[in-house]
Description:
The structure holds two protein chains of two kinds. Chain A is α/β, with parallel strands linked by helices.
Amino acid sequence: MTGSIAYALLLLLVPAGAAAAVLPLEEVAPGLYVHVGPHEDFTPENRGGIANLAFVVGREAVAVIDAGGSPAIGRDWLETVRARTDRPVRWLILTHVHPDHVLGAGAFAEAGAVIVGHERLAEALAARAPAYVANMRQLLGAIFEEPQLPAVGRRVAIGSPLTLDLGDRVLEVAAWPTAHTDTDLTVLDRASGTLLAGDLLFVERLPVVDGSLVGWIDAMSALERIPARRAVPGHGPAAVAWPQALAPQRAYLEGLKQAVRELVRRGTPLSNAVASVPAPTGWQLVEPNHGRNVTAAYVELEWE
Amino acid sequence: MGVTSMKRRPFFALASGLLGALALPTGLVGAAEDSWTTVRAMLFADRAIADGSARMRLEAPARALDAATVPVEIALLPEASSAADPVRRLWLVIDNNPAPVAATFHLYPEAGVGRIETRVRVNAYTPVHAVAETASGTLFAVDRFVKAAGGCSAPALKDKELAMARLGRMKFELLDPFEPGRVLRAKLKIGHPNYTGMQIDQVTRNWIPPDYVTKVDIRLDGKPLLFVEGDISLSEDPTFVFDFLAAKPGTLTAVVEDSSGRRFEERWQIGPTS
């Protein structure tokens, strides 16, 4: 009851649409801006703003890549884009279903942006959103606001990339088979030679397997052939050298596959498997993500 | 009821409406004590349930790592039952899940099944209960508390198309070398999405009905070994690791039925063929 009153008061004090703040940006190539998310879990302090977010400005329009992890971050992110350019935000590209990338989408939908997603994104969102919203309610506490779930206006099919013309600047949006999740998209900005890799590329922060370990390893072989000179990871620095920046992620995922395959072969129970694969070094937020990856890899590799 | 509860209502109201008789009333989801009280009353009415901590173990991680796959093991200790009054049924209850009864296991004394590991979905911070019933109707229970997984973790399918492609496929493995008369550990993995049904079809805008494994009948040479009644709280690709006794080589069969009326059957040779 007390919580409900506090929440109601908060609604009065901080009405939706309250003055939004401008987030820090790095211009990693002409007209391509990145906001770097911290390597943290969701907290009331970061308001779910933990993923890298980007936008690309063309002669006529802007495409935004990912929306942030809460309505509040989404509003700030839209304000940030508008502070930098007066060209219209025509597209919001969501790189996958995870909440830190999608729950800020409402502000962009209201502003008239068409939401671009993987062909499976709408269904994945419908299945997962109730759990994500419940998680956020718990993790964000008093600052939690009910997010608006985006309606996916342009669905990108695997094998049929979508081109978006921003005016003298064309983005190529590609949908991937199941890897980090079953809804992964990448965006290639040919003008600047930049691959916006979404969470198909983790740098510094431990990769999370929520789709298919084997699928992700396969996807990396195709990813590394994409002609780009730099990449914007879903988590990590604003820009990294491509494809060199894939190496640590590849080493971790390959090692995970070998270790877990061996555990499955030996009949080590799942409940003991997590403790049996040593935590990797050199990454941030290793736990609980490593244990989660071992679990996901175990049930996937059991079918081999 | 305050603002937050009102906002929460539409989703849970719809979801629990779909989940049949064992779904919890809307207002109770998330309230740990009330959930257990409700499930307990539904399953056991006012029968006494003794503390089972000296008779059985329940293993579950303190924190769910992946909300879609939380390993849980129930093990009966030698003190659990006597030859005169053996344990015949086990319930695995995830109190705060929309459908709390994850599985009911029927045991057969001569089959020697005394340890079962499976994987469940965990929606939120929740107590997990294991309840045992002996042939004479005595009940005893143990519980554990499982904290939820992180913000990005959801009790959802990893890859729906792959899950459907594997529908009905079964994999059986003996995890110990066969030895007549010895307790053997085995694993049965069943390809099935075990849909929760709590999602909307984007094309038709209808709620997709749940589609999950309802029955797993495992027999050795035709004699019942383990019979499982399942529900949507079991993870995708329901998997059971269990101990059993094989007096001699034989044929193990598994018959699986799901809520959509499908039936799958497979058989495997246990030990050398004579």
